[in-house]
Specification:
Helix content: 40-55%
Shape: globular
Distance between the termini: 29 Å
Length: 165
């Protein structure tokens, strides 16, 4: 598997997952909910997860990361997902030439790290994208939204929302 295949397809799936989860909401209330008082809201987690699409791809291809929204508005989050899908469709394998060796300096919270592109993408960016997607999903579930594992991963199918899997 080449580096393009290791990064772009998983991020395309993530960008499709957020609108699928939002479409399942019966009200907008869960999108503003938090798992704990000091955590992001579900919407903020989704924005962060989608932001990691740009935060992953753009440094790998030598481009700057734009300012991205951080909001609880479902329409804005879906629009961000569409923008990230467009971004992913705009990059090619050629853009990834030597991307795994590119030196990338970035922030991880308050830490400043420098990693090669491979470690940056596979050990930092992709896991963080999945982390924020999962916490957004968990917040929706915690607040009673009718979403299940199949809505999150796009593979599983259940006749009702499972309580354990």
């Amino acid at each position: 598997m080449d580096f393009f295949d290791a990064t772009v397809p998983p991020l395309k799936r993530l960008a499709k997952t957020v609108p699928r989860l939002i479409a399942r909401l019966e009200t907008e209330d869960p999108i503003s909910a938090r798992l704990t008082p000091d955590s992001f809201t579900a919407g903020e987690h989704f924005c962060c997860a989608l932001g990691f699409v740009a935060r992953t791809i753009l440094p790998l291809v030598g481009r700057d990361i734009p300012e991205l929204p951080f909001d609880n508005d479902p329409g804005l989050i879906v629009a961000l997902s569409e923008d990230m899908t467009f971004l992913l469709q705009s990059v090619s394998r050629h853009d990834f030439h030597d991307a795994e060796h590119r030196e990338i300096t970035h922030n991880a919270g308050e830490a400043t790290l420098t990693q090669n592109g491979k470690d940056y993408a596979l050990l930092f960016a992709l896991p963080n994208a999945q982390f924020h997607l999962t916490l957004g999903y968990a917040t929706l579930r915690h607040k009673g939204a009718n979403v299940g594992k199949g809505d999150l991963d796009g593979f599983h199918l259940y006749t009702s929302t499972p309580t354990h899997h």
